[in-house]
């Protein structure tokens, strides 16, 4: 059972049926429409960007002014609501992607800058970090948080393997994130600690999971719902050990308690998409109050310029030096 697509079972767009993309793998898509799961390909028109003389046409039949190449690695993402036509053999052809309410993107690997939309219509980013084995890398956490901020999505930090560390020590490390305003949960699959709270945080939401292998996502999801972690973990096995920097197989899994989850297997790190160097500081919430107050105002990159309000806030302790170092590392990319 995948994400609930029953709301779209009888909806038609320009005569096409509609559903939700719950799986994608190398150009093939599984669309859930009501109780049906329809294997689909995509129309060639979705590989092009149609430019109309009027903005955002709602009909497929408006006159096209010109055709441009798309600037995304794949025009369809897991979580997309799509319109499709039946092909008559139990399969379908996706004709249109309906407007997205949100999307989480990264820059695709390669020399040509292309957007890779990892998941569409997502509600929250869940960042899974182990308290130990492996030890947390806080600059990676900051990268994930900036990714969520760039998409305008709320973030939940979930710490696993709490039974391996002194909780007081972890409190000290996470205090700065609490002060910034980020939510976090402590969990231990071994002890059953925090599992109910984590299950409640996922309920009735579309959540994308971020976290490196070995942090305990499988055990955590199995604790939330028996067998769920094993199903999610199986999705990424095809890319393990092959040095891939993009995920070709993504799948959305529904939760018995409501909501759904999408994991990001095979993605070792996220390269930001559509964030320029002058906009980066705005993705650190604690830096926002100081933006525009520097000597060079909007032209300040906050790394060496005189009269920088952000750097003064770091020196005075209003911005944590560790977060500032994460900012500088991202700025240098």
| Count of distinct strands | 16
Low-confidence stretches: 1-10, 238-247
Distance between the termini: 41 Å
C-alpha-based Rg, rounded: 22 Å
Mean pLDDT over the full residue set: 85
Shape: globular
Q: Roughly how much helix do the residues carry, as a percent range? A: 10-25%
* Number of helical regions: 7
Order of H and E elements: EEEEEEEEEEEHEHEHEHHEEHH
Strand content: 25-35%
**Biggest sheet: strands, sense, closure?**
5 strands, mixed, barrel
Detailed description of the structure:
- This protein has 333 residues and is an alpha/beta fold.
- It has helices at residues 138-150, 167-180, 195-202, 217-224, 228-235, 309-315, 321-331, and strands spanning 12-13, 16-25, 28-33, 36-42, 48-51, 66-69, 81-86, 92-97, 103-107, 115-120, 124-130, 154-160, 183-186, 206-210, 249-254, 260-263.
- The strands form three sheets. Strands 2-3-4-8-7 form a five-stranded mixed β-barrel. A two-stranded antiparallel sheet has the order 5-6.
- 36% of the residues are buried.
């Amino acid at each position: 059972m995948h994400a609930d697509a029953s709301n779209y079972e009888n909806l038609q767009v320009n005569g096409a049926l509609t559903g939700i993309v719950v799986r994608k793998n190398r150009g093939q898509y599984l669309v859930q429409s009501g109780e049906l799961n329809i294997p689909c390909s995509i129309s060639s028109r979705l590989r092009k960007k149609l430019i109309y003389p009027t903005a955002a046409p709602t009909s497929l039949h408006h006159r096209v002014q010109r055709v441009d190449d798309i600037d995304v690695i794949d025009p369809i993402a897991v979580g997309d609501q799509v319109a499709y036509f039946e092909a008559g053999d139990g399969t379908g052809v996706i004709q249109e992607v309906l407007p997205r309410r949100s999307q989480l993107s990264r820059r695709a690997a390669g020399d040509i800058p292309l957007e890779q939309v990892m998941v569409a219509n997502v509600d929250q980013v869940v960042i899974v970090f182990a308290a130990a084995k492996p030890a947390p890398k806080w600059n990676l956490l900051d990268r994930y948080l900036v990714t969520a901020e760039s998409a305008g999505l709320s973030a939940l930090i979930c710490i696993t393997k709490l039974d391996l560390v002194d909780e007081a020590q972890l409190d000290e490390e996470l205090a700065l994130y609490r002060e910034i305003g980020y939510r976090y949960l402590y969990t231990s699959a071994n002890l059953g600690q925090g599992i109910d709270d984590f299950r409640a945080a996922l309920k009735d939401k579309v959540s994308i999971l971020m976290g490196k292998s070995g942090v305990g996502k499988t055990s955590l999801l199995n604790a939330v719902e028996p067998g769920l972690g094993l199903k999610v973990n199986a999705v990424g096995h095809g890319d393990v050990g092959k040095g891939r920097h993009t995920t070709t197989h993504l799948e959305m899994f529904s939760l018995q308690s409501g909501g759904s989850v999408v994991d990001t297997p095979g993605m070792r790190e996220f390269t930001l998409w559509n964030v320029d160097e002058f906009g980066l500081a705005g993705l650190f919430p604690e830096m926002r109050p100081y933006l525009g107050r520097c000597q060079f105002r909007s032209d300040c990159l906050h790394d060496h310029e005189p009269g920088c309000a952000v750097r003064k806030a770091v020196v005075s302790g209003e911005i944590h030096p560790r977060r500032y170092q994460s900012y500088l590392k991202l700025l240098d990319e």
